[in-house]
Design brief:
The protein contains 14 helices and two strands, in the order ααααββαααααααααα. By secondary structure, it is an all-alpha fold. It has two domains: 60 residues, no CATH class; 230 residues, MetI-like fold (Orthogonal Bundle), CATH 1.10.3720. Helix 6 packs across helix 8 and helix 9 runs antiparallel to helix 10. It is globular.
């Protein structure tokens, strides 16, 4: 098991390094001159050269990338002499638009994204597993066909359409929910909870539809296994057969996919956060794309890749704990 963990950690570090390298190449080596973007159109060549020197863009590319990696782990300095500015680790640079540290901008908004991701994950897991189990139990009947129709609709409708429809129906027409407001949980827990009901629902519906179909297929396949037939032959109650012998083995691949989906969502739900005006990482990315703020876009990209890679490793470790054959196979 130890060898398997070390192997997975080394693989994760290699993938993260490659992600950092290719991301840096795309945003700084292949993109337009960052110094021109910072200074603007009406800028003198002398000022552009000064900005390049302050950012270290006059160095060879390998040196620039090494300074970037140094900033992630030990911090780095921008400029020189009395105008030197120290960026503490993990340093992701400064915004071209606001001159704020990118790390601080992400940290300020990450809590909103985490709340959105956790709430949506709880909803889609509950809805998806229960819906899939009910559909499998009622295979071929009206309930099965009805749930299949709902899942097809949930997978087909775009997030932004569903978000706008919910806002119109629940906020404007029925007035069951207020317009989202910037409220902290400590100030007004009720209003804070109401702000996230619609974002949680919008994200959960799409994921829950996929999880319902996956759960249904896995449960039906598990029912054909010999151990399920043995459990029925022993005279166990049908609910015990479904819950203990059919559902639990079918949840293993669902746990794997759920970990990856949740990790990806931590990188920011761009459309949902933008539609509902939530100041999370996704909305930060959308605003930065509009303004072509390269350091912020690159930082959000690296953050999303980090969560996906770490989530993938965590899922593999959990899976190896559930099924020791995974670790044995990887180590051999």
């Amino acid at each position: 098991m130890t060898r398997y963990v070390v192997h997975r950690v080394l693989g994760m570090l290699l993938v993260l390094f490659l992600v950092c390298l290719f991301t840096y190449i795309i945003f700084f080596a292949l993109s337009p001159d960052p110094a021109v973007q910072i200074c603007g159109k009406n800028c003198t060549p002398e000022r552009i050269d000064q900005i390049r020197a302050n950012l270290g863009l006059t160095d060879p590319f390998p040196t620039q990338f090494l300074h970037f990696l140094q900033g992630l782990f030990a911090g780095r300095d921008y400029g020189g002499g009395t105008s030197t500015v120290h960026c503490p680790a993990p340093c992701l640079g400064y915004s071209f638009q606001t001159s704020q540290p990118v790390t601080d901008m992400i940290v300020q908004r990450l809590s909103v994204t985490v709340v959105v991701a956790v709430g949506a994950a709880v909803l889609w897991l509950v809805m998806g597993v229960l819906g899939g189990l009910l559909s499998a139990v009622r295979e071929g009947r009206f309930a099965d066909r009805f749930i299949a129709g709902l899942t097809l609709g949930g997978m087909s409708i775009p997030n932004y359409v569903l978000a706008l429809a919910l806002q119109y129906v629940l906020v404007v027409w029925l007035r069951w929910l207020p317009f989202p407001q910037a409220v902290q949980f400590a100030d007004d827990p009720g209003q804070w909870f109401l702000n996230f009901i619609m974002p949680w629902t919008v994200l959960a519906i799409g994921y829950a539809s996929s999880y319902t179909r996956l759960t249904r297929a896995n449960v039906i396949d598990t029912l054909d296994e010999n151990f399920v037939r043995t459990a029925r032959a022993k005279g166990l109650r049908p609910d015990l057969v479904w819950r203990r012998h059919a559902l639990r083995p079918a949840l293993t691949p669902i746990v794997t996919i759920a970990g990856m989906d949740f990790a990806g969502l931590l990188g920011g739900a761009l459309i949902t956060e933008t539609v509902f005006g939530l100041n999370g990482v996704g909305k930060l990315a959308a605003d930065s794309i509009t303004k072509n703020d390269q350091p912020v876009i690159m930082a959000v990209t690296l953050l999303a890749a980090f969560f996906v890679v770490v989530g993938n490793m965590a899922v593999d470790l959990v899976y190896s704990a559930i099924d020791p054959r995974v670790a044995v196979g990887a180590a051999s």
